Amino acid sequence: MTEQRRSDRSASVREIEFDVSAAAYPFVVVSETADCRIELAEMLPRDDGQYVEFFTVTDAAASRILDVADENDVDIRLLSEHPNGGLFEFHVDSSSPTVMLAELGALLRVVQGVDGTGRIIAEVPPRYDEVEIVDAFLEENPNAELAAKRDKDELEPLFSQTAFRQKLHARLTERQHEVLEAAFDAGYYDWPRKCSGEDVAAELGITSPTFSQHIHAAERKLLTMLFEEPQSGSHPRE
Question: Is 90 within 8 Å of 26 (Cβ atoms)?
Answer without folding.
Answer: yes
